[in-house]
C-alpha cells in the first residue's frame, strides 16, 4: 500500500497536505481554551470564530478564481505559502508582550511529581453539574490600551489573526491537492491511495493530541506553535518538490514530443523528395 502511494506523481503534494494535520493552528477546542486562559471573553472568541468560518467559506470562491488565472498546481503553492506565512505570524505571537510562553522557566522548575500532577489533571473530567473555576477572571477588553485583566493582548490577537489567515490557506491547499489526486491517480488504485492518505492525516492529528497531553501547561503552548510551524513549512517544501518534479516531467515530455515531431517531419520530407524523383524519372522516360 505504501509503495503504491509513494509511486504516485502527486505523492509529495499529498504528504505535504498530511503534514498540515500536525497543528494547533486551527480554530478548535485547543485554540478556544488558549484564548480563555489569556482572559478573552467568550463573546469575543465566538465573533472571531464566526469570522474564521466566513473566511474559510470564501476560500472556495478564491480557489476557483485562482485556478482560472494560474492553474491548479500554482494555486496550491499560493495556498501553502499563505499557511506558512500565517504559521510564522503565530510563532511570532509566542514572543510578543502578553505571551505566557516560558519553556525555559517551566523545565527549570519541573519535577516528575509536578509533571505527573499536571498530566493527571489533564485527563480528569469535571462533574457535569459542577462549575469550573476559570484560570483568569473574564472581564471586558480595554480596547484603548489593548489589555485584558491588565495584560497586553498583542500576543493572543496576533495568534488569532494567524489562525484566521491559516484557514484561508488551508482550504485552498486542500481543494487543490484533492483535485490533483483525483485527476492523476488511476481509478483502480484510488481507494488504496486515499486510505494511506487518511492514515497519514490521522497519524499527524493523533501526534498533535499526544503532544497536547504531554505538554498541557499554557507556558509550553509556544512550543506546540513552533512545532506546528515546522510542519507547515515542511508541507510547503514537500509541495515545492512535487511542483519541480511535475514541471521537469512535463518539460521532458514536451521535448520528447517536439523531437518526435521533428523526426516525423523529416521522414515526410524525405518521402516527398523520393516521390518527386520517381515522378521526374517517369517523365524523362516518357
UniProtKB/TrEMBL annotation:
GO cellular component: membrane
Keywords in alphabetical order: Ion transport, Membrane, Transmembrane, Transmembrane helix, Transport
Membrane topology note: Multi-pass membrane protein
Entry-linked InterPro entries: Ferroportin-1 (IPR009716), MFS_trans_sf (IPR036259)
Alphabetical list of SUPFAM superfamilies matching this protein: MFS general substrate transporter
Segments crossing the lipid bilayer: 12-32, 44-67, 74-96, 153-177, 221-244
A Pfam family of this chain: FPN1
Gene Ontology MF terms in the entry: iron ion transmembrane transporter activity
Cell compartment(s), UniProt: Membrane
Family per similarity comment: Belongs to the ferroportin (FP) (TC 2.A.100) family. SLC40A subfamily.
Function: May be involved in iron transport and iron homeostasis.
Name the record gives this protein: Solute carrier family 40 member
Species name: Acrobeloides nanus
Amino acid at each position: 500500500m505504501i509503495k503504491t502511494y509513494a509511486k504516485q506523481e502527486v505523492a509529495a503534494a499529498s504528504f505535504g497536505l498530511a503534514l498540515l494535520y500536525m497543528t494547533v493552528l486551527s480554530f478548535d477546542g485547543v485554540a478556544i481554551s488558549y484564548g480563555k486562559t489569556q482572559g478573552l471573553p467568550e463573546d469575543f472568541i465566538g465573533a472571531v470564530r464566526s469570522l474564521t468560518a466566513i473566511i474559510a467559506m470564501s476560500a472556495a470562491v478564491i480557489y476557483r478564481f485562482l485556478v482560472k488565472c494560474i492553474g491548479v498546481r500554482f494555486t496550491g503553492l499560493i495556498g501553502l505559502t499563505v499557511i506558512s506565512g500565517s504559521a510564522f505570524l503565530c510563532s511570532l505571537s509566542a514572543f510578543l508582550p502578553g505571551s505566557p510562553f516560558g519553556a525555559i522557566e517551566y523545565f527549570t522548575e519541573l519535577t516528575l511529581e509536578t509533571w505527573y500532577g499536571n498530566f493527571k489533571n489533564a485527563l480528569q473530567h469535571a462533574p457535569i453539574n459542577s462549575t469550573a473555576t476559570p484560570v483568569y477572571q473574564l472581564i471586558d477588553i480595554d480596547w484603548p490600551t489593548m489589555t485584558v485583566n491588565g495584560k497586553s493582548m498583542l500576543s493572543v490577537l496576533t495568534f488569532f489573526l494567524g489562525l484566521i489567515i491559516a484557514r484561508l490557506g488551508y482550504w485552498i491547499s486542500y481543494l487543490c491537492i484533492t483535485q490533483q489526486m483525483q485527476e492523476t491517480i488511476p481509478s483502480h488504485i484510488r481507494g488504496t491511495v486515499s486510505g494511506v492518505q487518511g492514515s497519514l492525516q490521522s497519524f499527524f492529528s493523533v501526534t498533535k493530541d499526544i503532544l497536547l497531553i504531554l505538554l498541557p501547561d499554557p507556558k509550553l503552548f509556544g512550543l506546540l506553535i513552533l512545532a506546528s510551524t515546522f510542519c507547515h513549512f515542511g508541507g510547503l517544501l514537500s509541495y515545492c518538490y512535487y511542483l519541480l518534479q511535475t514541471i521537469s516531467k512535463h518539460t521532458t515530455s514536451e521535448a520528447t514530443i517536439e523531437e518526435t515531431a521533428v523526426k516525423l517531419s523529416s521522414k515526410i520530407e524525405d518521402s516527398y523528395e523520393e516521390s518527386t524523383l520517381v515522378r521526374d524519372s517517369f517523365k524523362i522516360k516518357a
